[in-house]
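Thread: "does anyone have the structure for this chain?"

Original post by V.I.:
We have the sequence but no experimental structure in hand. Need at least a predicted one for the grant figures.
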Amino acid sequence: MKVIMINGSARGAKGNTQILLEAVGKALKKKNIDVEIITLADKRLNPCKGCGGCGGKKKCVQDDDINAIFQKLCDADGIILGSPVYFGNVASRMQMFIERTGYVARNNDNPFKGKIGAPVAVARRAGTTFVYAALNFFFGIMEMPICTSSYWNMAIGRLPGDVNKDEEGLKIMETLGNNMADMLLKLRK
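Reply from O.Q.:
Generated one for you, tokens below.
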């Protein structure tokens, strides 16, 4: 089994979102679930054109990195979306990712249906519940069961590495990884 994690932070592998995703991944790996983190900051992404050209093709007509990511999501058993709070919402690359992959999936018999989804949010101080909800909206419309933790899947940190001081946030991520592994194993029997 495999879980693909999408890091929507502009800071990429150097930021707090990455640290949280790695914490979830550590717990998943302990239960023999393969993990891959895809960092959107490293990818060429264009906004969705809303052209509908993806219908029946199982890929976007635009030539950027979305199609390779989309295929990995189709092959995965679980998907975790991680985003920092930027001006009260998900980061712009995460929004582009949601629109592009969601549009292709919905226009092609929704290959995400039934996969396990989970959101991860991080903020300096506030806005995590809105981002948590925004990420869950994607899972809901994709007909994906949502995995939870002992609290909402969020942590606090402003500068890179600050989330390491949020002991409760890191524990929430560990519990999320354990819960997702258990959920995947139960649903795939």
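V.I.: this helps a lot. The chain is about 40% helix and 20% strand.
O.Q.: and The chain has a mean pLDDT of 96.
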